[in-house]
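Budget justification aside, the reviewers requested a transparent look at the raw inputs and outputs of the sequence design task funded under Objective 1. We therefore reproduce one unedited record. The lines immediately below are the structure tokens for a 326-residue chain.
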């Protein structure tokens, strides 16, 4: 470790003031403290925002959901409104991390978490995300778990969150508080692809604070669910995953929301798959044909070519689970 100062914010104004002065927000601390121990992160000031009133889950008008940034993962997963309206969200949360971590980690922290690329966490390895301009050890290294979509020559790391995949599929928005007031950012714009600046991972400004994630209302009935494929059945990150929500009425798919995880540098929304489904009658052949588009544009690396086929099969299987086979 190294020296740093720690302060608590009693209210939003105190938090924003401290953030404006360069303080780093912390709540559950399940990612940041690890990274500080490994000296990957070296914030000089931590601002504990646990006391802020951002722990509510509200069912919005017409059946959307607003989840406060400080809601624990386990609280969100167990919430009756989340389970009833968006099972894909509660399932993604329940398949994340461990029970202990889910009891500590918050929704805001979950979407702000940093990559699990082993080279990023090894301070002796070259990593453009940790140290811009130093290179990317994963490109020529062991890149089995890395991304095949949204990569750049500077970084090929995946985003590790499961619930972010569900938020991306459902076209959620991120609510931010900052020195200049409030603003909202579409979830699909909030997490940034690496491009030439892999060290910049979120569309958040200095001193801003996530206040909530909001899922818009979607037509009912809506079936949804999350499938995670990984090397072992618990406490493991996704090799591939699929978040699917379908609104089927009159025997046809009226609305389709689909995203994949474990394959992109950000949660990977799949508009081509969605377009293939809308207006069609559910069938096994439809699921297979739509899922064929799940790896469009993929650029696999030496050790992760298997993800191209695996993500198609993951999406196909979850379409079948959610939509049925008839
Ligand atoms: Fe760093 Fe990204 Fe390369 Fe991993 S993939 S070593 S995070 S630059």
């Amino acid at each position: 470790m190294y020296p740093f100062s720690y302060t608590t914010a009693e209210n939003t104004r105190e938090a924003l003031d401290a953030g404006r002065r360069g303080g780093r927000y912390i709540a559950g601390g399940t990612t940041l403290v690890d990274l500080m121990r490994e000296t990957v992160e070296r914030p000089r000031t931590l601002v504990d925002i646990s006391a802020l009133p951002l722990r509510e889950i509200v069912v919005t008008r017409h059946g959307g959901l607003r989840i406060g940034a400080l809601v624990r993962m386990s609280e969100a997963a167990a919430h009756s409104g989340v389970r009833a309206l968006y099972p894909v969200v509660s399932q993604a949360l329940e398949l994340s991390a461990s029970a202990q971590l889910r009891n500590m980690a918050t929704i805001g922290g979950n979407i702000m978490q940093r990559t699990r690329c082993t080279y990023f966490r090894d301070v002796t390895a070259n990593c453009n995300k940790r140290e811009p301009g130093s290179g990317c050890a994963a490109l020529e290294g062991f890149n089995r778990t890395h991304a095949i979509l949204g990569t750049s020559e500077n970084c090929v790391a995946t985003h590790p969150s499961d619930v972010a995949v569900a938020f991306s599929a459902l076209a959620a928005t991120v609510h931010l508080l900052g020195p200049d007031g409030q603003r909202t950012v579409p979830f699909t714009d909030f997490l940034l692809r690496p491009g030439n600046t892999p060290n910049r991972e979120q569309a958040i400004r200095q001193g801003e604070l996530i206040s909530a994630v909001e899922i818009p209302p979607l037509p009912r009935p809506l079936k949804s669910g999350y499938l995670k494929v990984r090397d072992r059945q618990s406490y493991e990150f996704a090799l591939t995953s699929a978040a699917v929500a379908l609104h089927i009425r009159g025997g046809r798919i009226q609305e389709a929301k689909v995203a994949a995880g474990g394959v992109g540098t950000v949660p990977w929304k799949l508009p081509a798959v969605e377009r293939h489904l809308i207006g069609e009658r559910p069938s096994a052949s439809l699921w297979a044909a739509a899922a064929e588009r799940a790896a469009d544009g993929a650029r696999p690396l030496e050790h992760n070519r298997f993800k191209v086929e695996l993500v198609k099969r993951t999406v196909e299987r979850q379409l079948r689970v959610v939509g049925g086979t008839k």
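The CA atoms of residues 233 and 271 lie 29 Å apart. The pocket of iron/sulfur cluster is lined by residues 115, 117, 119-120, 127-129, 136-138, 155-157, 198 (CB under 6 Å). Computational costs for records of this kind are itemized in the attached budget.
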